[in-house]
Specification:
heterodimer; A: alpha/beta; Rossmann fold; 4-stranded antiparallel beta sheet; 10 helices; globular; B: globular
Chain lengths: 263, 542
């Protein structure tokens, strides 16, 4: 569903991402983790067509993001870390606009709107302007808009920021459901517990290079120096600290793991 | 021993703030682009200053004496009219965080704000003194008078804010209304006295208005600042300057005597101000009024239109919901443009309409597009979202340009109606203007958006001391005028050639119209390309 091959992103003299390759199949939930500046958001932004890649092939649902952006964009949804809403539109108007932009038939959109507003506790806020909403509410609106056109691929960038415990549970359940129904999901987050809880696959990025990419259950075996019961946190620190200590080793590790991709 | 006016820490804060501004300017010059920008700014500013110096054939202090008091009165009336109960003095968010819980007295904080405001007035007064230079005898008098006048206006605003935050809502509203009524009645009485009298040989109606007894009463404090600016000898400057300073000191003394607790109201005001600034920074000028129920204005659902419809829909809805303040601003411009013309003594209706409409039309063409940002500029923080939409860049661009073009057209049609009713425009000219206006508007906004996408910047929320922001604005304005001249020049050239070949004015006009339309299509494609190459990661301004 999501294919990234040999993706590079360079800003002036800074290499943000270097030679990244991975795939996410339908039904898989990929956790994208890494320290600040690792290239997580840059990668998601490139796949979603917000920024152009310097080099490489990026496609969603068989459509190249650079060559055929409109068709690719119809098939995915992106929820940024800080949703920027239209301040003078109401909650339902955001959904109306999304339905129009993604050409969701009016009756289908109306039905889904009701379901989503109920599910994310936004019924009472349906006529509230975006500028009147709290951080968490805005996040919920962005999620509802993303789900409205039933995308085949969904990209989340720090999805839990600002959400209350009930909304966190609702979001987690909804992500599982979407994946079970065949959507490919990518979650970029610093919350390793969230990744461990939701993801089937993991991609550890550091300084724009992949340190590990594969199913979550293969993570411990990839780092044989660690004990079998090491937590995800232990593995994360081991991988990133070692990468910091020896950049040449990191490059080779990154390249080796990247070539394998997600099975 | 020098009395301790402010705690040393607060003086240090002012000093550090000043240094920060200087540092910002210096850092901006480290890059080639920044240095060139500053040089260009100095050149433009120098040219502007030279213009004022060249214009100074002989000083006209009477002009300053006549108009400055009225200008100040208008600013104070506006402060009064737009003040709200519960409003307080605005502080910077960091000042609220650090100073409010800090070891400072209430008076220290108040004086800190007054000193801060006064320091900010120095560069502003410098700019205004250049503007007034052709009309005053001494530059120093112009500068001192401007500084004192602006300081008075600021202090008046602070006083109103303090009272608004301290007294009960009904009392404040009543006092405000009573003062406004008194001023209006006073002006009406002096106007009737003035109109009954014959037009004087020297001066004008405005001078006559000032000399009536209600005029003298209402303009008493403002007159002193006007006379300081227009001082014709050093002695006069010293006398009027000292009087102006005494008025300002008295105002500070009154504030200290009142000793009102402003902190809670200030906290709320500062938060509101911060929200407004953020709103402006994100490209959405804060026009919405508080009383209107904007949800009643329904979402405008336009047809698909190859993807342009949804984008135009949200922009149009946003524009309509922001229209209240915009309409108010237009009315304000019309009134402020029309009233002086009337007072100067023009009686011919056509001349009045022309003199009102000409500056208003210039404003509409060159400045209004900067305020009407219901396009890419207003979506500065949503460029990522626009990029993820499954729509072609050309469709998004068309959708973005529809709203500002329509909005501007409505405003222009209002102005043109006034001109048509006044008989300023003939039917032929009117028809031609109506045919070309949509295309001209489209060109204006296409150029505005093209330049913004190529050189993105946030709407400046800067004071007079932010030289780089001013330079950027000046350069963009200059560049826009050059591009517009070239574009219009090309269309006129095509029209002229067609006219010469066919020997028919009508064919020339039609040819020019098609040339304009062709240029519009080309510009839209250029804007779409610029949007396509816009990289939100690197191009979004800080």
């Amino acid at each position: 569903m999501i294919v990234v091959e040999n993706y590079h992103k360079v800003y002036d003299k800074t290499i943000a991402v270097s030679g990244l390759s991975f795939t996410v199949e339908a039904g898989q939930v990929l956790g994208l983790v890494g320290p600040n500046g690792a290239g997580k958001t840059t990668t998601i932004r490139a796949i979603t067509g917000i920024i152009p890649p310097t080099r490489g092939q990026l496609s969603v649902a068989g459509h190249d993001v650079v060559a055929d952006p409109v068709q690719a964009k119809r098939r995915f949804a992106y929820i940024p870390d800080e949703p920027k809403l239209f301040e003078l539109l109401t909650v339902t108007e955001h959904l109306k606009f999304t339905a129009q932009a993604y050409e969701v038939p009016a009756d289908v959109a109306a039905e889904r709107t009701e379901d989503l507003l109920k599910r994310f506790d936004l019924i009472e806020k349906r006529d509230a302007l975006a500028q009147e909403l709290s951080r968490g509410m805005r996040q919920k609106v962005a999620i509802c808009c993303a789900y409205l056109h039933a995308p085949d691929a969904i990209f989340f960038d720090e999805p839990l920021t600002g959400l209350d415990p009930r909304a966190i549970r609702t979001l987690k359940d909804s992500i599982r459901e979407r994946a079970e129904n065949g959507a490919a999901v990518v979650i970029s987050s610093h919350l390793l517990s969230l990744v461990e809880d939701l993801c089937t696959h993991l991609l550890i990025l550091n300084r724009g290079q992949s340190l590990f990419c594969g199913p979550l259950h293969e993570l411990r075996s990839a780092f044989s120096e660690l004990s079998a019961d090491a937590s995800l946190e232990d593995v994360f620190f081991y991988a990133t600290d070692n990468a910091h200590a020896d950049s040449s080793d990191t490059t080779s590790l990154g390249a080796a793991v990247t070539d394998e991709g997600v099975p | 021993m020098i009395p301790r006016i402010l705690p040393p820490a607060l003086w240090a804060l002012h000093w550090l703030t000043f240094r920060a501004r200087v540092r910002k300017i210096c850092r901006g010059c480290r890059t080639v682009r920044g240095a060139l920008g500053l040089l260009a700014g100095i050149a433009i500013f120098g040219g502007w200053m030279t213009m004022f110096f060249v214009q100074r054939h002989h000083a006209q202090p009477q002009f300053v004496r006549d108009y400055v008091p009225f200008g100040l009165l208008m600013m104070c009336v506006l402060s009064l009219v737009f003040s709200k109960s519960g409003q307080g003095i605005a502080f910077q968010p960091a000042e609220v965080e650090f100073l409010f819980p800090g070891p400072f007295r209430r008076r220290d904080l108040l004086l800190h704000r007054i000193v801060g405001n006064s320091l900010m007035l120095v560069p502003t007064s410098l700019m205004f003194s250049l503007f007034f230079y052709p009309h005053v005898t001494y530059w120093l008098a112009g500068f001192a008078g401007t500084f004192l006048a602006l300081q008075f206006q600021t202090m008046f605003q602070v006083t109103v804010s303090l009272l608004a935050g301290a007294v009960r809502e009904r009392l404040f509203s009543f006092t405000r209304l009573a003062m406004a009524v008194l001023i209006v009645v006073g002006l009406a009485v002096s106007l009737s006295i003035t109109l009954d009298a014959p037009l004087p040989d020297s001066g004008g109606r405005i001078s006559q208005l000032r000399d009536t007894w209600p005029g003298r009463v209402i303009l008493f404090p403002f007159d002193i600042f006007g006379k300081t600016m227009a001082a014709t000898s050093p002695v006069e400057l010293a006398v009027w300057g000292l009087l102006g300073t005494a008025i300002n000191v008295l105002l500070v003394g009154m504030l200290f005597l009142l000793d009102l607790d402003f902190r809670e109201a200030s906290l709320k005001t500062s938060q509101r101000m911060q929200q407004r600034l953020q709103s402006i920074r994100s490209g959405r000028l804060h026009w919405t009024g508080g009383s209107i129920n904007i949800r009643r204005l329904r979402y405008i659902s336009l047809p698909w239109l190859r993807g342009a419809g949804p984008v135009a829909s949200y922009q149009m809805t946003t524009a309509l919901r922001s229209a209240k303040g915009m309409i108010g601003m237009m009315l304000f411009i019309l009134v402020t443009a029309g009233l002086p013309m009337f007072l100067v003594g023009r009686s011919n209706a056509g001349n009045v309409a022309a003199s009102v409409a000409a500056p208003a039309l210039m404003f509409v063409l060159f400045f209004f597009p900067q305020f009407v940002q219901f396009d890419y500029r207003g979506d500065v923080d949503r460029m990522g979202l626009l990029k993820t939409l499954p729509l072609r860049p050309i469709a998004i661009t068309c959708g973005q340009l529809v709203t500002p073009v329509v909005f501007l057209l409505v405003v222009e049609l209002l102005l043109i109606s006034v001109m048509a009713v006044s008989g300023v425009l003939s039917t032929t000219v009117l028809l031609n203007v109506l045919a070309f206006l949509p295309l001209v508007n489209l060109m204006l906004f296409a150029i505005e958006n093209l330049m913004w996408l190529l050189y993105p910047c946030r709407t400046a929320v800067a004071g007079a001391a932010d030289i780089q922001a001013m330079v950027r604005q000046m350069l963009l304005m200059l560049l826009k005028m050059i591009v517009l001249s070239l574009v219009f020049g090309a269309a006129i050239a095509v029209g002229a050639v067609a006219w010469l070949i066919a020997d028919s004015v009508a064919i020339g006009v039609v040819a020019a119209w098609f040339a304009c339309a062709g240029i519009c299509v080309g510009l839209i494609r250029l804007v779409a390309q610029a949007f396509n190459r816009f990289d939100p990661a690197t191009d979004t301004p800080a």
